[in-house]
Amino acid sequence: MSLGAPVLRFAPSPNGRLHLGHAYSALLNADIADRMGGICRLRIEDIDPQRSKPALINAISEDLAWLGLHYPEPIRRQSDHMDAYRAARDGLIDRGLAYPCFCSRGQIRARVGEGGETACDPDGVPLYPGTCRSLNPAQVAERLAQGEPHTWRLDMATALRCAGSSHGYIAFDETGERWVDADPARWGDAVIARRDVPTSYHLAVVHDDAEEGITHVVRGRDLEAATDLHVLLQTLLGLPTPRYRHHPLLLDAAGEKLAKSRGSQSLADLRAGGITPAQIRAQLGFG
User: Which residues constitute the domain of residue 86?
Assistant: First the structure.
């Protein structure tokens, strides 16, 4: 690989077996990397200690190898890098860009329900009303010292003032490149660190993309809106912004996207039923 060659990544979470939607994304990343003369890395996004299972990490490797996909070592596992995420989180906290939130999900639902019509973020989650944003500093320090469970939220208004008003990224596909304006404000005061780990998906993914030198991110359209927030975090953390491509999602017979939570048929099931990798590739347009 020549200096400056493109670097892509496929980044599944080990909370269920891979299905055809994962296969499509993995094959597309590998195909684009090959056509661009670059490489594609594998990343295991296992920050969730409850849902991530070691056996499923091995299963991911088995499924991808069965498809004929192989990745350079070392393969990054997010659970091995909590100290790095904690440092990134603390940097935002020290600059006054994040604050602790002691609200439970039930308390948030009750609070946002008091005002009638509820504004939601792109994932359909009610926007956080800012209950803990203006807590007395002494009270915050006391609650933290007592070990009260909390998340850390990005102070969106302060973050936007710090980062500037213009945000966006370069999107690419077979037709070329185009500029996309981003609107991170629609996420409100997003969670950047969970109660149980010192990060969130959003914080970990922008950190890892920079750490691994990812130049092009190819992922599903269900994450297109999240890119707005990622661009802002990259600016705040002084990280480069990759080029992005958000591919269509595979749908089931009911028109719903394939998902582990809905019991979509896994690659392992298909393999057990006699389907070959060549048939999978052909079905997904990579024959």
Answer: 82-242
Report the first-to-last Cα separation within the chain, whole angstroms.
25
Please tell me the total count of domains within the chain. Answer: 2
Query: Are 51 and 162 part of one and the same domain?
Result: no
Cα atoms in the Cβ-side hemisphere of radius 13 Å centred on 101: 23
- The answer, as to whether pTM is greater than 0.85, is yes
Q: What CA–CA distance (Å, rounded) separates 225 from 207?
A: 18
Report yes or no: 246 and 29 within 8 Å, Cβ to Cβ. no
User: Measuring CA to CA, how many Å separate 227 from each of 94, 122, 138?
Assistant: 24, 11, 35
**Which pLDDT value is given to residue 2?**
43
- Whose CA is closest to 286, among 153, 60, 219, 278? 278
Phi then psi for 99, rounded to 5 degrees?
A: -140, 155
* Mean pLDDT taken over the chain: 94
Mean local confidence (pLDDT), 213-218 = 98
According to the model, what pLDDT value does residue 256 have? 85
Residues 227 and 99 in one domain: yes
- Beta strand pairing call for 243-247 and 216-220: parallel
Main-chain dihedrals φ then ψ at residue 218, nearest 5 degrees: -120, 115
